[in-house]
């Protein structure tokens, strides 16, 4: 889900649906948050697009959004380093 670590970083467990009509958080999918993104799952385009989308959502630079697990999978774990904000759509899923 969405876990805030002691140092202020956030770990985000996502289930990604590439090739959607728009970028949007869709709710829960098992123990992950489902997110739809416009980019196709080709040559890392989806990961790069998702990194940019998450950076905008958490109001951080792209270099502060790190893919920790799942480079070639729909199940991904991202680390948001020192986020400035947590998107309203993700507030209900925040665990301490």
Set out the fold topology:
Layout: E1 2-4, E2 10-17, E3 24-29, E4 32-36, H1 45-58, E5 65-69, E6 75-80, E7 94-95
Parallel strand pairs: 1-7, 2-4
Antiparallel strand pairs: 1-2, 2-6, 3-4, 5-6
Task: Please tell me about this protein's structure.
- The protein starts with a strand and ends with a strand.
- The model has no long low-confidence stretch (mean pLDDT 94).
- The protein has one domain: 2-Layer Sandwich (Conserved Hypothetical Protein Mth637, Chain: A), CATH 3.30.1200.10.
- It has 1 helix and 7 strands, in the order ββββαβββ.
- With 96 residues, the protein is α/β, with parallel strands linked by helices.
Describe the sheet with the most strands: 7 strands, mixed
Q: Pairing-aware structural class of the strands and helices?
A: alpha/beta
Give the second-level CATH assignment, the architecture: 2-Layer Sandwich
Q: Uncertain regions: pLDDT < 50 for 5+ in a row?
A: none
Provide the helix percentage: 10-25%
CATH superfamily: YggU-like
Protein traits:
96 residues; alpha/beta; Conserved Hypothetical Protein Mth637, Chain: A; 7 strands; 15% helix; 36% strand
